Amino acid sequence: MKTMYLPMSFVMAAPVALALMVPQTTRPWSEGLNALPSLFGEHASLFAPSQYLVVAQQYFMPEAFDFWNEATKLGNNLKRYTDEQLENASATYTSAKEKIEEFKVAMAKVVSSTREFGDRLGRDGLDFEELFATELNAILDELKTEFSHPLPGDETPRQAQRDKVISSALSKVENVIVNTTGLWGVPEETSRLHFQEFEPHVKNVLFVSGQLIDEHPVLMEIILFTGATLLIPEAWLLRPLLRLFGFGPSGPVKGSAAAWLQREIWGAAVSKGSWFARLQAAGMKSKRGLCKTVVGSAGVSLGIGAAIWGSCC
Fold it and tell me: What pLDDT does residue 3 have?
């Protein structure tokens, strides 16, 4: 029997690559087994996502990791990465293609409507992101009290409950925006009028994302990651708002109200290590185009692991 030796870059990269390949959510591991690539065959169960997430976090994620700062630095490279990931997802899951396009259009409308919202409020004189984010924390506690049951397993009641949670949350968000902008002298009537024009676009993004994730849970991570990157141009409002619903890391500990709301809406919460790992993939993609990252049946290919150590396997 001939012995095959693997390059050290492959051996070293495997744990990190596996952390990327498996959706890092709070879903039971048994639900993710079918997402593992056929490469591992009968040994797929050996590669539990939590084990490899720990490796990725321990060796690569800085303690002071700032997702938003690092994402902004990547600029157009990050957009190319997310565009490619969505294209590959559409090719892999053909039944999701139409819904993915709908998601992209919905996000574009949210960003443009936020820009108009800010212009009408005179956002150049507003610097309320931090205060707005702080006020939103109270919403989480209120929602957790209001909705104490997890999403139902059946699709129709699950969508109905998600609609209730989202509608209730956005109603509370409106009051927070009115109160916050009021500190800068914006009349309540003006804030409510502009919010009511802006709200349907936010609601549509959340509903479309929910439908897409219901039908293809394995795409949850890339959908939320893409949404987080697309909101950056209008981060003054969208970062605290959409982060509330899981579009971007909020830094909550396990079991916190923020993680609870993500599970309530999407059925799972994305780990901090996964946000970091995808930024690494986007950064390496920009430096080494030959080491391709693709969304397959479970996530990102092993090319990223090779890129980390400077060579393609």
Answer: 44
Q: Could you tell me which residues come within 8 angstroms of residue 240 by beta carbon, excluding any fewer than 6 positions away?
A: 129, 132, 133, 136
d(CA 95, CA 75): 30
- Give the mean pLDDT per block of 10 residues along the chain (313 residues): 42 44 40 38 36 44 78 92 95 95 95 88 68 83 79 79 90 92 88 91 94 92 94 90 86 59 83 86 66 40 33 37
Residue 225 in contact with residue 74, Cβ under 8 Å? no
Distances from the Cα of 178 to the Cα of 30, 120, 238, angstroms? 45, 14, 15
Give the predicted TM-score (pTM) of the model: 0.71
First to last CA, the chain: 23
Q: Which long-range contacts (CB under 8 A, 24 or more apart) does 124-129 make?
A: 125/184, 126/181, 126/184, 126/186, 126/236, 128/180, 128/181, 128/183, 128/184, 129/235, 129/236, 129/237, 129/239, 129/240
pLDDT of the residue at 287: 58
What pLDDT does residue 256 have?
Answer: 67
Widest distance between CA atoms in the chain: 79
CB 121 within 8 A of CB 181: yes
Residue 275, classed as helix, strand or coil, is helix
* Residue 63 pLDDT: 64
Phi, psi of 267 (to 5 degrees): 90, -5
Q: How far is CA 98 from the centre of its chain?
A: 19
CB neighbour list of residue 199: distance below 8 Å, 6 or more residues apart: 170, 174
Looking at residue 123, its pLDDT comes to: 64
Element housing 177 (H / E): helix 155-182
* CA gap 98, 212 in Å, rounded: 10
Instruction: Report H helices in 35-128.
Output: 49-60, 67-74, 76-92, 97-121
